[in-house]
Write a sequence for this structure.
């Protein structure tokens, strides 16, 4: 619970500090950067959890969990702001939805490989200019 509160308060505190230091003209830039940081944080957490959540599960459960992860990635993509990040999140969500899950072990390997590929793009998009 404390981690959740901290995750919510830190971005808000940063925004307040940025507004007071930068002035109102730069609030949009700071808000966009904050949204990007939050989107990156959420995206990496979802991508890390997806391969872990499907291990040892039946194919129907694997499919359901991948669909849930894809939905969360779509939600984050809507908030991301930055085009490359939005596209990477959307691409990973689409990949999760399109995976064949008849064989859980094979699906697990495919999820891990696909996630690693997209995490490289996500990480590059998350680097602040």
């Amino acid at each position: 619970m404390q981690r959740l509160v901290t995750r919510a308060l830190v971005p808000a505190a940063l925004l307040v500090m940025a507004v007071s230091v930068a002035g109102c003209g730069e609030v949009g830039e700071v808000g966009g950067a904050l949204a990007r940081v939050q989107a990156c944080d959420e995206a990496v957490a979802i991508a890390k959890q997806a391969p872990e959540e499907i291990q040892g599960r039946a194919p129907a459960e694997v499919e359901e969990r991948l669909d849930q992860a894809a939905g969360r990635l779509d939600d984050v993509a809507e908030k991301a702001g930055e085009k490359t990040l939005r596209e990477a999140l959307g691409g990973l969500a689409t990949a999760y939805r399109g995976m064949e899950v008849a064989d859980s072990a094979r699906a697990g390997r495919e999820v891990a490989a696909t996630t690693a590929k997209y995490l490289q793009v996500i990480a590059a998009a998350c680097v602040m200019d």
Q: What stands out?
A: The helical segments are 2-22, 27-54, 59-80, 83-98, 104-126. Residues 17 and 62 are 43 Å apart (CA to CA).
